[in-house]
UniProtKB/TrEMBL annotation:
<keyword id="KW-0227">DNA damage</keyword>
<feature type="domain" description="DNA replication/recombination mediator RecO N-terminal">
    <location>
        <begin position="1"/>
        <end position="67"/>
    </location>
</feature>
<dbReference type="Pfam" id="PF11967">
    <property type="entry name" value="RecO_N"/>
</dbReference>
<dbReference type="GO" id="GO:0006302">
    <property type="term" value="P:double-strand break repair"/>
</dbReference>
<dbReference type="Pfam" id="PF02565">
    <property type="entry name" value="RecO_C"/>
</dbReference>
<dbReference type="InterPro" id="IPR012340">
    <property type="entry name" value="NA-bd_OB-fold"/>
</dbReference>
<dbReference type="GO" id="GO:0006310">
    <property type="term" value="P:DNA recombination"/>
</dbReference>
<dbReference type="InterPro" id="IPR003717">
    <property type="entry name" value="RecO"/>
</dbReference>
<protein>
    <recommendedName>
        <fullName>DNA repair protein RecO</fullName>
    </recommendedName>
</protein>
<dbReference type="InterPro" id="IPR022572">
    <property type="entry name" value="DNA_rep/recomb_RecO_N"/>
</dbReference>
<comment type="function">
    <text>Involved in DNA repair and RecF pathway recombination.</text>
</comment>
<dbReference type="InterPro" id="IPR037278">
    <property type="entry name" value="ARFGAP/RecO"/>
</dbReference>
<dbReference type="InterPro" id="IPR042242">
    <property type="entry name" value="RecO_C"/>
</dbReference>
<dbReference type="GO" id="GO:0043590">
    <property type="term" value="C:bacterial nucleoid"/>
</dbReference>
<keyword id="KW-0234">DNA repair</keyword>
<keyword id="KW-0233">DNA recombination</keyword>
<comment type="similarity">
    <text>Belongs to the RecO family.</text>
</comment>
C-alpha cells in the first residue's frame, strides 16, 4: 500500500454497501479520482460530513502498488476541510442548481481518471468560492464558469473576430460549429443573429468584466445563456442534465 495526499473538490458521492461511499473528486495533482471511503455513512463517522459535494478538502489516499489510479479504487482514509462551500450553496436553490451544473461540467471535462487538470481544478475552486460568496447572480457565475471551462479545454469561443477567417469584429452571426461569431462571408446554415448586448455579455464573462456582466438586462442574460448551453452541448456532444434546473 502506498500513501498519497492531495487536495480536491468533491464532485459527487455514491452509496456502496451498507456504510461506505464512493467519492469522486477533482484533485489538484491527480485530476479526477474515485476512492472508497469506508464507514462514512455511519453516524459515528469522524469525517463523513466533510466528503460531501462542493467541499474543498485535503485528502489522504491509500492505494495498492505505486500509483494512485490502478486496478482497484484507492481508499480515502482521512480528510480535512479547506473550505466548506456547500453550506452557503445548498441552502439557496439558484446557487445549488448552478453549483451542481458546475460540478457536472468539471467531471465531464475530466473523463480520464488520474490525468492532472490543474486549470480546470483551479477554475472550479474559484467558481464555487464566487458562488458561495453571493457577489454575483448564480446564473452569471455559471455561464462564466462554462465559458472558461471551454476555453481551458481548447474550445474558447470567439466573440469579436470571425472564428473562421479572422475578420475583425464586430461580426453579427454566431455559429456553435464554427467556434463563435462569424462574418457574412463565412456564415453557415444554422447560424443565428444574437443581439450585440448578449455577445458583449458573454465576452465580459469570459474575460472577467463583472461590472459589464452585472449591469446586463435580464433578456440579454437569457439570450446569452442559451448560446452558452448550445455551444457547450456541441463540444460535449450531449447536454448537461443539471442545466434544465438552473434558474434564468
Amino acid at each position: 500500500m502506498t500513501l498519497f495526499r492531495d487536495d480536491g473538490i468533491v464532485l459527487r458521492t455514491q452509496k456502496l454497501g451498507e456504510a461506505d461511499r464512493i467519492i469522486t473528486l477533482l484533485t489538484r495533482g491527480n485530476g479526477r479520482v474515485r476512492a472508497v471511503a469506508r464507514g462514512v455513512r455511519r453516524t459515528k463517522s469522524k469525517f463523513g460530513a466533510r466528503l460531501e459535494p462542493f467541499s474543498h478538502v485535503d485528502v489522504q489516499f491509500f492505494a495498492r502498488g505505486g500509483e494512485l489510479i490502478g486496478r482497484g479504487l484507492p481508499l480515502c482514509t482521512q480528510s480535512e476541510t479547506i473550505a466548506a462551500y456547500g453550506g452557503a450553496i445548498v441552502t439557496d436553490y439558484a446557487r445549488y442548481t448552478a453549483g451542481t451544473a458546475m460540478l457536472e461540467t468539471a467531471e465531464r471535462f475530466t473523463e480520464h481518471e488520474g490525468e492532472p487538470a490543474v486549470q480546470q481544478y483551479l477554475l472550479l475552486v474559484g467558481g464555487l468560492r464566487t458562488l458561495a460568496n453571493g457577489l454575483h447572480a448564480p446564473h452569471l457565475v455559471l455561464d462564466a464558469f462554462l465559458l472558461r471551462s471551454l476555453a481551458v479545454n481548447g474550445y474558447a469561443p470567439s466573440f469579436d473576430a470571425c472564428a473562421r477567417c479572422g475578420m475583425p469584429g464586430p461580426n453579427r452571426f454566431f455559429s456553435v460549429g464554427s467556434g463563435g461569431v462569424v462574418c457574412g462571408d463565412c456564415r453557415v446554415p444554422g447560424s443565428v443573429v444574437p443581439s450585440s448586448e448578449a455577445i458583449g455579455l458573454l465576452s465580459a464573462l469570459l474575460t472577467g468584466d463583472w461590472e459589464t456582466a452585472d449591469a446586463c438586462e435580464a433578456r440579454h442574460v437569457r439570450e446569452g445563456s442559451g448560446l452558452v448551453a448550445a455551444y457547450l452541448h456541441w463540444h460535449l456532444e450531449r447536454g448537461l442534465r443539471s442545466l434544465r434546473y438552473v434558474e434564468k
